[in-house]
Amino acid sequence: MSGTSLFDLSGRVAVVTGASSGIGRSIALAFAGAGAAVVLVARRASMLDAVRDEIRRAGGRAASLPCDLADRASLKECGTQAGESFGAPDILVSAAGTNRRKSMLDVTEDDWDTTMRLNLDAPFFLAQRLAPAMIARGFGRIINIASLQSVRAFADCAPYGASKGAIAQLTRAQAEAWSRHGVNANAIAPGFFATELTAPVVNDQARWTQMAQRTFVGRNGELPDLWGTALFLASRASDYVTGQTIFVDGGFSAG
């Protein structure tokens, strides 16, 4: 196997949640460009279809699967339908997420429950439903999206931070359970990227600049910065890498 073929996703089927925008959309485009057939999952059907059409226009293969991942019944149906367009998935990227920014004392039960259902429950149960077919084939890749808040706290983000700390541990647990069967589990922890989720920081120019200055690289992330790590973790190049959380943050977490 050549060095370049290690990263080839031709013949693979990838499910990417949160694929209508931001990190999920960017990773879905990268996978399609590397040859994978991509099943796009998100709640907003029209935005999802736009990403699907963009991939198809570029010569790739994609299908949209609208799903409210915070709803257990919808999540179960998503797991059932994920293999209908291209066959059983080889790769799962759980990028869907929410961050309700409130002070600790103002967080409601709904804030907590919705955050956990989308940020933690969905990655757990969707992987649980897709992993058996991966195990049967002897190959699979689980990629969770962690966060700087997997290892440190930011103000007014307690439920989000708790969910992302749990994602790092969930990734290790998935790796322990499934890696001996060829199904590796890893997480990507992005730094500050301009997405819908980070809009309150992006729109505060002083804070956005401050975050850039805290990196070693001297700038905040751009979505293509995630492509190399995502392709590495989705491909045969990462056969001996599992249970890891890789920070793609310009050195922010190392400072």
Mean pLDDT: 96
Percent strand equals 15-25%
What is the CATH architecture assignment?
3-Layer(aba) Sandwich
Number of domains: 1
Question: CATH superfamily, please?
Answer: NAD(P)-binding Rossmann-like Domain
The computed structural class is alpha/beta
Look up the CATH topology: Rossmann fold
Q: Report the CATH C-level class.
A: Alpha Beta
Largest pleated sheet: 7 strands, parallel
What is Rg? 17 Å
Overall shape = globular
Helix content: 40-55%
Strand arrangement, largest sheet?
Answer: 3-2-1-4-5-6-7
Order of helices and strands: EHEHEHEHEHEHHHE
Say how many strands there are. 7
In the predicted model, the low-confidence regions spanning at least 5 consecutive residues are: none
Helix count equals 8
State the end-to-end CA separation.
Answer: 37 Å
Describe what you observe in this structure.
By secondary structure, this protein is α/β, with parallel strands linked by helices. The protein has one domain: NAD(P)-binding Rossmann-like Domain (Rossmann fold), CATH 3.40.50.720. Helices cover 42% and strands 15% of the residues. It contains eight helices and seven strands, in the order E-H-E-H-E-H-E-H-E-H-E-H-H-H-E. A seven-stranded parallel sheet has the order 3-2-1-4-5-6-7, with helices on both faces. Helix 4 packs parallel to helix 5. The longest helix has 29 residues. The protein is globular, with a radius of gyration of 17 Å. It starts with 12 loop residues before the first strand and ends in a 7-residue tail after the last strand. The mean pLDDT is 96.
